[in-house]
Amino acid sequence: MDELEPPALGYQVAKYRRMLKISGEELAARAGLGLTRSVIANLENGRKRDVTVQQLIALALVLGVSPADLVFDLRRPYDLVPLGDTSAPESYASTTTGQVLARSWFGGSRLASEMSYRTTVQGPDDADDLSPLHVSDDAYKLTLIQKLLDQRASAAYALAAHEQHLLDVDRAASRGEVIRGGFLPNDLDTLRIRVRDFRAELYEVDRQLRSYGVAIDEPILYPGVPF
C-alpha cells in the first residue's frame, strides 16, 4: 500500500464539479457561506487546503455527494492516508490508515479504533493495531446507537411493507381473488409470522435505544429513494 499526502479536498471538489458540468463561480454561488469563485479556484489548484465544516457540508450538498467523498477518494481504497499531525508520534490526534477505513470513520460508521488495519501479507501474530488510538465509552455508545437506529429504520420499513401486503392479501382472499407477483409472499400464515417477527425486532431495538437515553418517540425518518 502506498502512503499518500493528506486527502486533497480541492481535487475531489474539482472532480465532482466537472462531473456536474458547472463552473466554480456557479458552485460558489449555490453553496454560499462565504465561498467565492476565487476560493473554489484556490481549493482546486491546491493553494487553499481547508474549509469550515459548514462550507464542506454545503459543497457536498451542491455536488450531490457525501462530505466524506470530498475528503477521501475510494478509487484507491487501500492506499494509506495520514490523518492529523503524524509528525507527533505520541499524539492521540493522528494516525495513518487506508482510505476506505478513514472514509467509514469520517462518515460515522466506524470507531477511531477500527481504523487500525491488518493486510493479507501480515502473519497471524503481527499486531493489527498499528495506530493505537484512545476510544472512550461514549464513542462506542454513539456507534452502537447509530447501528441501532439503522436497524430500527430497516425493521420499521419492512414491518410497514409486510403489514400492508398482509392487508391486501387478506382482502383479496376474502373476495376469492389471488394476488400474483411481487417480492413478498402471498401466504397469510407466512406473512403473519413475518409481521410478528418484525414487531418483536422493533420492540427489542426500541428497548435498547431507550436504555441509552435516545429520544425515539418521534416519527421514523426514512432515506429518500435515490432515483
TrEMBL record:
| UniProt superkingdom | Bacteria
GO MF entries: DNA binding
- Which segments constitute the HTH cro/C1-type domain? 13-70
Q: What is this protein called?
A: HTH cro/C1-type domain-containing protein
Q: What is the lineage of its organism?
A: Bacteria, Bacillati, Actinomycetota, Actinomycetes, Micrococcales
